Amino acid sequence: MSRKTQDTKTKAMKRNADSVRPARGRTDNTSTAKKSSSTKRTDAYNPVRALQAKNGRFYFLAFVLVILACVSMWRVASHQVLAGDQGFEFLQAQGDARSLRTETITAHRGVITDRHGEPLAVSTPVVSVWAEPKFLLGESDKWPALAVALGMSEQELRERIGRYANKEFVYLRRHLSPA
């Protein structure tokens, strides 16, 4: 082969090598080995730049996640610890309103009978009358009417209130049938 034919084939190979791009992540050893050092490809896959781009995305994502974690921790602290409109007291009150209830349940026992159907024990509803002695001491003019309503003497009522004067609670009469 002549020198001219060989140069033409080399130029054709270079043109073909430049037009065919290697797949990403792969390098075509035949096309890069025949290139001269003076020609640089700017569109070629550069693993250093790809790694830098991946690191940049990683650091950005890590930064966003750290910010989200800090914001959520701040919200938890503001709800649980710090006082305010939506603070600890508010949440305690809301929780109590949803879970604490006072319900009066009346439970009456049935009649206990013997084998012939005769009642042995009968439960009847009863009430107890109680008072706060400190409050009752200020209302001594109403004691006679209260003693008559309870079926006891005024002297007995006066002694009972005097005995429990420093207490917060006293039963005046127990097991009364409801009127």
Overall mean confidence score, pLDDT: 78
- N-C termini distance: 133 Å
Secondary structural class: mainly alpha
DSSP strand (E) fraction? Answer: 5-15%
Order of helices and strands: HHHHEEEHHHE
Radius of gyration over C-alpha positions, nearest whole angstrom: 48 Å
The gross shape turns out to be elongated
Question: Would you report the number of β strands?
Answer: 4
* Weakly predicted, low-confidence segments: none
Reported for the largest beta sheet, the result is:
2 strands, antiparallel
Count of discrete alpha- or pi-helical segments spanning 4 or more residues = 7
Largest beta sheet: what is the strand line-up?
1-2
Task: Assign a percent range to the helix content.
Answer: 40-55%
For the structure shown, list the relevant keywords.
two-stranded antiparallel ribbon; elongated; 4 strands; mainly alpha; 179 residues
